[in-house]
Amino acid sequence: MKHWIKLLPIVSLLFMSVSVQAADKPSVIRFGLVGNAFGKPYTGGPLGYINEYGLLEKEFAKDGIKIELSYFTGAGPAVNEAIASGLDDFGNVGDLVVVVGKSGGLKVKYILATGQGNNTYIQVNPASGIKTLKDLKGKRIGVNKGTYIHLGLDRILDGVGLTEKDVKLVNLNAGDANNALATNGVDAIASSADRPVVDQGIAKLLYDTRKDVKYQSSPGGLLVSESFAKKYPEITKRVVKVFIKGQYWASQEQNREKQLILGLKTGSSYKNSKDDIADQDLKKKYNPQITAGVEKKYLEIEDFALAHSIIRRKFNLDTLFDKSYTEAALKELGLQNYWEK
Amino acid sequence: MSKIKLTMLVLGGLLIGNANLYAAPIPEVDAPEVTVSGDAVETEPPANTASTKEDETPITRSELQGVRSEIAVLSDQLTRQLTRTIANSNRALLISGTLQNRYSATTWQNTSPYNITPGFSFNSAILSLSGNLKKDYEEGKNIDYAVGLSAAGSVNPTKTVTGTNTYAMTVTAATFQPTDAYLRYSILPSLSIDQPYLYIQLGQQKRPFGVEPQATEDKQPAINLATFSGPTGLNLSARDIGLQLKGDLFPIVDLGYNLRTPTIEYALGVFNGTGPNQLENNRSKDFAARINFNAPVEYNSDFRGLTIGSSFSTGKQDLAVINNPSQFISGGSGKASKVRYGGDISYVASPIGFTAEYAVGRDEQALSAKNAYATALTTTTQSSGYTLTLFYEWGEQFQKDYRSQSRSDDWWPKTYQPFVRFDHWDPNTAVAGNETTVLTAGFNFFFAQTTKLQLNYTVSDNKLTNLKENDFILQFQYGF
């Protein structure tokens, strides 16, 4: 036994090696972002602009705070996991991701509406014999479950009297879904505007939501972990300010072309991206405010997700939204009247 | 065609396809930056308005032809690489490997001089090949294969008991031996994560028993196996040749985190019972079964990672003499009963977790070597062992989705994992004072995606041989 006592200093050292971080400001702010189908660490839209010009880095350089951006191929659910594990402080995710995460007890606040009107595209393999949306019944459909596209697909199916139980959903991330469609691994996939397999002529575009606004996504959200926001409220507000700057830039019609070009870094097709938002009012799309309309849409998503067994329980939306950061940031930027309330 | 080649061809096709389809103007970005002035937001005018006009000028046919020519050159280079420098296989193939290099030293022993010489050693090299023989697109009833080759040998010094307080070093040359070598068929559809899975595995594989015995070499927490799991104990970590059904029931899926947790996991197998790379030597077969219950919870539950399991196996072995397992009784081949059972509980969470395992062995043995099997007097020797491991960890390595990131640079996820382990082994519970205990304090430093540095300090006490010693082992495990 006495020899074991020799171990005590070693064990103590090992456990004491857990570092304790200073409380006044973080040394790094970590963002979890949705990766794209092409495996490139870029994104389009306002965030593409923010990253291209290093706005976050510039904002916090004087404080010596580093910025870390993680682009997850596992999309929104991976962002949720990173925040839940304490590996990320902020996450930029789609509508359904917010709802399933919060329903599962994720300790986050939705502090900024990042962009709405994302479309869902249904691409099909010609050999599948699918001619109409109703033909999807009994077919294998690849989709990244838990994402806004999953919700879009369920709503589209709902529109033709089908549910998930009427089809075979295969959980695939965007890149794998494209491969599966090209190799006949699935009969159809639900995706964003990126459709390289269709562009090659291997698959066909069956349907998309560009003309069906009711199936388009609700505003995605900038999430912050509750612990980070509580510990660093001023830092959180400054992050929101940077995001609003990005959305202000992207909301201007004169910058439509430029944001499309920035988006090319993701590997997305210029034409597809341009067509995707051609009919959309950019100012409305990038309205950062958590309006009553946003809250209503999230209530509808929650009800839909519960009814379709995507989530198991409801949660109080009041525990999700925190408008204070956006309101304060808009005021400081003089933009409180720029967007429609 | 290999997956790599298919992917490259698809990418090549995409490059060419995109260039052909879209000759739209793609000017350089000259984005005005948003700046704050007082309480207002202003946008700076573009620095070079001339470039904006240029941006709006469509490219000419000759310019487009130039782009096409460049892509054609790239395509040609790609094709040549595919035929000359990229490995090929008839079916999908994943090649991976694990290598372990060690430095070990005895820092204290109750005998003098110390019998173990400190030094560097190469512990093992494992080459693993796995892939798919049939891919069922319809339902995911795939046929997969796994082959592993390990050059473990005894390059690492081993201690052999030759008598009380007497030790000898046994060092043998490393030779490649098969580890895993099995086929796996998915009996149930495997495309839906919210449905139960069921597989059948045929070949050489891990037997379904316990937690640590089933962990592959690269996943074992401490450098040395828990004694009950290793060759000086019940040897439960050894592979065997046979047939195994593995499945799960009532999966809980949390879409918010891509999490799938089966409430029940089960395995049932029949094996030769003779160990790896050995032919059957008797008519009987070993049967092994395991069931474990996972807390049926979602991602954010505090109980996520809690598992309770139980394992059982029975079979026959050659009748050997008690206290001398290498001396066999004539006519007793495959006649002695062999029973193993155990329980385990584990909580594998972050940052704190533990695993606790208990295993019992009951072996029929002859009381002496004097009589042949027909007249031999036998007894049942019961052995038992348990181990408790506590760990604390922080870092990114064990977050499944966190490891899958799009990055423009190489990524070095880091995780730190200090742990302590208590290990107890009693080779004969009817005899007092013959136990072995090993206390290990360790630190695992995971860096990069497949690399870890392990530091273990062990304090062991073997009452049977009256040997006490403290050892330090540093192991660098790396893989590809």
CATH topology term of the largest domain in chain B: Porin
Instruction: Report strand order across the widest sheet of chain A.
Output: 2-1-3-10-4
CATH class of the largest domain in chain A: Alpha Beta
The profile of the biggest β sheet of chain A is:
5 strands, mixed
Output mean pLDDT of chain B: 83
Task: Please give the largest β-sheet of chain B.
Answer: 16 strands, antiparallel, barrel
Name given to the CATH homologous superfamily of the largest domain in chain B: Porin
- Give start-end ranges of low-pLDDT stretches of chain B: 13-32, 36-40, 43-52, 155-167
Distance between the termini of chain B: 22 Å
The percent range for helix content of chain A is: 40-55%
Would you kindly provide a written description of the structure presented here, covering whatever features stand out?
The complex is a heterodimer of chains A (341) and B (480). A 5-stranded mixed beta sheet of chain A has the order 2-1-3-10-4, with helices on both faces. Chain A has a 5-stranded mixed beta sheet with strand order 7-6-8-5-9, with helices on both faces. Chain A is an alpha/beta fold. Chain A is built from 16 helices and 10 strands. Chain B folds into 2 domains: 3-84, no CATH class; 92-479, Beta Barrel (Porin). With 480 residues, chain B is mostly beta strands. Chain B starts with a helix and ends with a strand. Chain B has helices spanning 3-21, 49-55, 61-84; strands spanning 34-37, 40-43, 92-109, 119-134, 143-151, 158-163, 166-170, 176-186, 198-206, 239-254, 259-271, 286-294, 306-317, 320-321, 324-328, 336-347, 352-366, 378-392, 394-395, 405-406, 415-426, 436-447, 451-462, 467-479. In chain B, strands 3-4-5-8-9-10-11-12-13-16-17-18-21-22-23-24 form a 16-stranded antiparallel beta barrel. In chain B, strands 1-2 form a two-stranded antiparallel sheet. The longest helix of chain B is centred in the N-terminal third of the chain and has 24 residues, at 61-84. The interface between A and B is large, with 81 and 67 residues. Strand 2 (66-72) of chain A pairs antiparallel with strand 20 of chain B, so a sheet runs across the interface.
